[in-house]
Please model this.
Amino acid sequence: MKKAGKIMLIIAGILLGIIVILLVVWLIMSPGKIRTYKGEKSLSEKFVMDINGAPNGFFINSENTDNPVLLLVSSGPGTDDYVFTDKYKDMRLEEDYTVVYWDYRGMGIAYDSDIDVSSITMENLLKDTHVVTEYLKERFGKEKIYIMGFSGGTHIALRAAKEYPQDYAALICMAQAVTDSTDRDTLMYEFMKNVFAERKDNASLKKLEGMVEHLQDGTVKYTAAWIDYVNLVHDAGGGTIRNKTEFEGIVLPIIFARCYTIPEKINYIRGMKMYRNAPLSKETENFDYREEITELSIPVFFISGEYDYNCPWELVEEYCSILDAPSKELFLVPEAAHSPLWENPDVTCDILRKIKEMTSDE
Model:
């Protein structure tokens, strides 16, 4: 064998060895375990169960199951949020609530390649929400629970609160999706333009201008792919995690999460892709809750990060002012963008504790 061939063989062997080592390390870092607690009334569970003929996943964290139950409707839709609880350890919401992270049909740990994608509709998810809520009420002996939608999950939580108000002590909307109109596009644009101008980042400014159309009424409409527009918001510091790219804020936490096994991590991504092609994706377009849902019969609380321009907080403030409800309030969380519960857990958990105290008789 020639010398060059031997060198190439050695290099290939070294690369193969590195890959094997990395896979072993990744396997060790992916045990699929979640937080556990020592108290007699504590609870730490991860499981999948059938709801209305489809697999649904659950992560439950509680230091005391006598506490109120909080159903967290995951974002996306189709993105499991327990990954953030796994990464950002300072978030201790389970001290005040029995927190139920719900992976709805076919997503996250409930991913099933055989699921009928056409069944992933808003109508079915609302039916699932009702069954999940009834299950939690019965299991934990509660007349009512709290429901909190996060980002894309606010579509489901808001509509569930409208349809089944008797089930809930309060609706909590974190990073509420208000509208996909040019009002949203313009707020995102102005935020990015100001940030990039302050940075003197002419390349990003040029990229931004190439993504929008300026309309005669002074607003803008994004013309690029939505994912590209949102990625630029991440670059400006108003995305999922403040001042982190989508890769840093979402992809890396998934890769290094201990709460998933390697197959679960792979299925997590497969589930996200599946949801993008589900009917639900189309059903959550062309919406404006400022016109569609203007009245609720239960208390409503909005939580937004002051740097959130994925779901711009100014629109949430406007929607809160429009909405007719027995009680309502917007909490703006400092030093946070789209994910205040994990970015600024002390402030956000204090807010959620206050909400519990305000609605304890509901």
The CA atoms of residues 308 and 338 lie 5 Å apart. DSSP finds 14 helices and ten strands in the chain.
